[in-house]
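S1.2 Input.
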Amino acid sequence: MSAGLSYKRSSSQPHRLKPFRRAVVLLLSALLFLSGCLPPWLASPTPTASPPLPTATPPVSPTPSTEALATPTVSEPLVLWLPPQFDPESGSRAGNLLKERLAAFEQENGIQIRVRLKAVNGPAGLLDSLTLASAAAPAALPSAVLLPRRDLEDAALKGIIYPLDGLSTAIDTSDWYDYARELALVQGSVYGLPMAGDSLGLVYRSEWLAHSPNSWQEILEQRYTFTFPAQENQSLVTLALYLSAGGDTQDTQRRPLLEETPLQTVFTWYRSAAERAVIPIWTAQVETYSQAWQAYQDQRTTMVVAWVSTYLSDFPPDSLFAPLPSLGDAPASLATGWVLAVAEPDPQRRVLAARLCEWLTQSDFLGAWSEAAGVLPVRPSAFPLWKNQSFVPVFQRMAETARPIPSNEVITVLGPVLRESTLEVLQLKTLPASATQDAVKKVANPGVK
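S1.3 Output.
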């Protein structure tokens, strides 16, 4: 059989039981019912107190021997879980490149790869599927899985993916952007290899603006309209501006933090922009980046905050992309991305799974693939391989200066507080100083109204 991608759909068929076996099964079921015993994945968990700061705990399993690391012998196919947007069978250029890359790995290592697509969110999504399989059917876990950064963090803290210590040193090379290397880390340990990045920036109409805005003050003076998803619960735009003004998100004990001076700087600009209608009043109703992007496409605004991936997928001919201007000395670009992680429970197969992660994140592949997939590169060596070099200067600058979105724990605390205060300022209900003081107090004293 020639090397190539093989897909297999799970199926189940009823097995007929002989009368004697049926009687035994019925008897055992009755005993279980009477004794109140249920399989652990069906029983209701006993409530326990959650620690304030979860610690990443890798799954416990035998460590592969030195010989196994060098020459693993595996006959069963490796299983790779991917989100739909990276489907190797999509027929797109990015899909074809990935399909060819997987086939080359199969041929070089003498093993098949089965790709299974999982939704990004929801009960059948990547993280939920990993969690359920880990608890109920470890044999159903994938060998490797491509996870968004937020899910990588959760999976590591739950102990359902493996750190790469002893499996790979690829992250130690110099050919990674700083933001990408940080995406792979959870509490200081490497839990994957970055494959694709994304970052927030500013899209503007080049026919109206001669150059990208250099500052937020310039945007105020030009009086061109600007919008973003003010209703977004993570409040990433406000957070990005706060960080660019010099704010920190954690104190010395790593507890969530908001600082008064940089936050008031952000709210003061919001107030001025709202009073001059630079930020339209309807911005307070925008919940998602897709809604903000649609408003931009409908010609309702001159500038919009958008993801690199959104711009590259739609690529409006009258628009250009630029980093978000800063409100201080620090860059304002926030980044996230997709990271390949190892979930393979078998030690020998885990070695090959880690090798697959390395194979799919090598620079000779990521160069052409990142451009075709419309993502921000994670390696500096990728940009010289892009065919459209006109994009390179701005995206290269963003990749060099972007910082990762703070941890899930920090975002969970800061996001809703920043959202509430942002809306009050944009709707001219609260002055910047009051909104700042309220937000700082809510974070410093959670649960106190």
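S1.4 Remarks. Residues 149 and 183 are 6 Å apart (CA to CA).
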